[in-house]
Amino acid sequence: MATRNRMPPWHENFKAPSGRELLIRPIRPEDGAPLQGAFALFGPEEVRDKFLQSVESLSDETAQRLTHPNPKTEIALVAAEPLPPGEAVVGAVARASIIPGTRDAEYAILVSGFLAGQGLGRQLMRKLVKWARGKYLDRLYGDIAQDNEPMLQLAASLGFKQVPHPAAAPGLVRMVLELAN
């Protein structure tokens, strides 16, 4: 009888064109310290694009919040070295969270510069879309810095449409994927 080598849900081996091998998996509480340590690997532009300000380090509070998602309303994935959580360097983080009282979820993806342009953001985004569809949500959206052309192009290539930002936030573009289609 043949046995299948199956990975746990939301786990995937990812081989970048550079040859670097990563494991995409749900974030774990043990990832807090490596995530804080790896924060320096994220260049100032990547951090600014995500946090919309210069952030030198990841606070303990933010690391705690990221590494303890509520499984009913959010998902957080990492792309890390194929080592045990707590030991692996984290090169990317993707998160989606349902907005309370709605059928919408907001996403955010942060990929370090040394992994940018290798398809990792696309793969993480596909997983977030799959999660949102599995939750039977109406839409998935993200706010992207208007000068973050690679992320805007990625979102558009996956069917996201640019809509006016409800807060008219300067420098931000809201990209929305209608999931009910």
How would you portray this structure in words?
By secondary structure, the chain is of the alpha+beta class. It has one domain (12-140): 3-Layer(aba) Sandwich (Aminopeptidase), CATH 3.40.630. Helices cover 26% and strands 28% of the residues. It has an 8-stranded mixed β-sheet, sandwiched between helices. A hairpin with an 8-residue loop joins strand 7 and strand 8 (172-178). Helix 1 packs across helix 3 (60-67). The longest helix is centred in the C-terminal third of the chain and has 15 residues, at 120-134. It is globular and about 40 Å long. The N and C termini lie far apart (41 Å). The relative contact order is 0.15. Residues 44-55 have low confidence and may be disordered. It holds the Pfam family Acetyltransf_1. It comes from Stenotrophomonas terrae. Residues 22-180 form the N-acetyltransferase domain. This is Acyl-CoA synthetase. GO terms for molecular function: acyltransferase activity, transferring groups other than amino-acyl groups.
Order of strands, widest sheet: 1-2-3-4-5-6-8-7
% residues in beta strands: 25-35%
- CA-based shape: globular
**Overall helicity:** 25-40%
Under CATH, the homologous superfamily reads Gcn5-related N-acetyltransferase (GNAT)
Helix-strand pattern:
EEHHHEEEHEHEE
Average of the residue pLDDT scores: 84
* Total number of beta strands: 8
Low-confidence stretches: 44-55
What are its keywords?
181 residues, alpha+beta, 8-stranded mixed sheet, 26% helix, globular, Acyl_CoA_acyltransferase
